[in-house]
Automatic annotation (TrEMBL):
Keyword Membrane recorded: yes
Official protein name in the record: DUF2157 domain-containing protein
Pfam families in the cross-refs: DUF2157
Sorted UniProt keywords: Membrane, Transmembrane, Transmembrane helix
Signal peptide per UniProt: none
TM regions (residue ranges): 47-69, 81-100, 112-131, 137-154, 210-229, 235-253, 265-284, 300-323, 330-347, 404-424
Presence of keyword Signal: no
Domain DUF2157: 17-159
InterPro entries: DUF2157
Origin species: Termitidicoccus mucosus
Length: 436
């Protein structure tokens, strides 16, 4: 329990203490003055204010842009330039006030960060359109991202952090489509510039909602930034690459964020769901019906390089978790091994080897998740495992020539398994609470 909660409880108890003549009115007043200074706004109020500030910044920025667009043709070029810069100057003034006087207010920081970020983009676009400076989307996003980067550190704004990642991810896609570039060095630079801010917050406040927000933004942006690297890669390679990313997501989340799950653990949620979806897709023969991998040694070498890099990262994470005795799902950690096992055979001789191996992996992942749920008495994990096994069975049935009777019986058996597992777990919990 933090000091704010303790102070709030003490202040709430003061009237009853006075009524019972334990302390007098003077002592109660002195205690109230002392502890009220330690009471911080509740989290729900802070979240509401922050959300309202972000929405307010978005609406103000959008309204200014619409007003300018409505009267734009009636203005001269110098007037357009002045009007284009006015929102930026206003956002600078508000941000300076927030930095000097309101840095302890999330509403001020997020509202100013949102308004400032939108003002940068609007000013760049309007000035460029007025003087016909350039017509390059990649260049526009580059300048926008560079000018937004200081906002993240100065205002400590999650909205500015999210906007920065959106600009970077969009730029990566644009340069891939327009120029055919992967932008590896650029991606490293963009991430290196922003990661100290995220790492510092995650180190000090890993359970805070601010870190959760930033984690969602980062977890969504990274796979998008990876898309240009698959520009010349077959569909199977894209699946494998994203599967490796999702595996690293899961292990990193277990390593750093511990038992958090659901919306509070973005990397774990996206990693678990993404890995399950990728694995089920790779279990189909159609995933390998693109041009043969055997004749494309460049893609094979690229796949092996990705497997090696991901394997090194996973070994480091796994070693750390074993050292700290942090439990994790071994089925998820074995994805690179099964992928390597599948493609060692599919490269020289095409056939059903790779889908068969990935079917085995999906089954192993489902069973592993189910067993972890049973051991930890977690209905969520048990149902995760059952859903994964059910998805595999359903896909195999719809992909085969089984009769409707066989399919119906199989689904009934799986449904009974769902109900039985949940009932048994609930009965164990009831007996444990009753002391039986």
């Amino acid at each position: 329990m933090n000091d704010s909660k303790i102070a709030r409880q003490i202040v709430a108890e003061l009237p009853s203490l006075v009524a019972q003549n334990i302390i007098d009115d003077g002592a109660a007043t002195a205690l109230r003055r002392h502890y009220e200074r330690q009471i911080k706004p509740s989290r729900s109020i802070s979240i509401g204010l922050a959300i309202s500030a972000v929405l307010g910044g978005l609406l103000v920025g959008a309204g200014i842009i619409l007003l300018l667009a409505h009267n734009w043709d009636a203005l001269s070029k110098p007037a357009r330039a002045v009007v284009a810069v006015l929102p930026l100057l206003a956002s600078i003034a508000f941000s300076c006030r927030a930095i000097l006087r309101h840095m302890d207010s999330a509403a001020w920081r997020e509202g100013c960060g949102t308004f400032y970020f939108l003002s940068i983009g609007a000013s760049i676009a309007l000035v460029s359109q007025t003087y016909h400076l350039y017509n390059d989307m990649a260049g526009f996003l580059l300048v926008w991202a560079l000018l937004s980067l200081p906002l993240v550190y100065l205002l400590k704004s999650g909205a500015a952090f999210t906007g920065y990642l959106a600009c970077v991810a969009a730029r990566m896609i644009v340069i891939s489509e327009d120029r055919g570039e992967t932008g590896l060095l650029q991606a490293v630079f963009w991430l290196a510039a922003i990661m100290p801010f995220y790492a510092r917050l995650a180190w000090k406040r890993r359970d805070s909602l601010m870190v959760t927000w930033l984690s969602w933004a980062l977890a969504i942006a990274l796979p998008i930034m990876a898309v240009p690297f698959y520009r010349d890669v077959r569909f199977t390679g894209v699946l494998v690459g994203h599967g490796l990313i999702f595996t690293v997501y899961y292990l990193a989340s277990r390593c750093w964020f511990g038992g958090l799950r659901g919306l509070r653990a973005p990397f774990r949620s996206i990693g678990s769901l993404g890995l399950a979806v990728v694995s089920v897709i790779l279990a189909f023969n159609d995933s390998y019906e693109r041009p043969a991998w055997a004749s494309d040694h460049g893609q094979i070498n690229g796949l092996l390089a990705c497997l090696i890099c991901a394997g090194i990262v996973m070994l480091a994470l796994g070693g750390f978790m074993l050292w700290r005795k942090i439990s994790f799902n071994w089925g998820a950690a074995c994805f690179p091994f099964f992928v390597l096992l599948a493609f060692v055979r599919v490269v020289p001789t095409e056939g059903d080897w790779a889908p068969m191996v990935m079917n085995m992996y999906v089954l192993a992942l489902g069973v592993s998740t189910l067993v972890r749920g049973v051991r930890s008495d977690s209905l969520f994990s048990m149902n995760e495992g059952m859903v994964l096994i059910s998805a595999l069975v359903a896909c195999r049935f719809f992909d085969s020539d089984y009769s409707f009777v066989a399919r119906g019986v199989a689904f009934i058996v799986i449904g009974c398994g769902f109900l039985a597992a949940n009932l048994v777990t609930l009965e164990k919990r009831r007996r444990r609470r009753a002391g039986i």
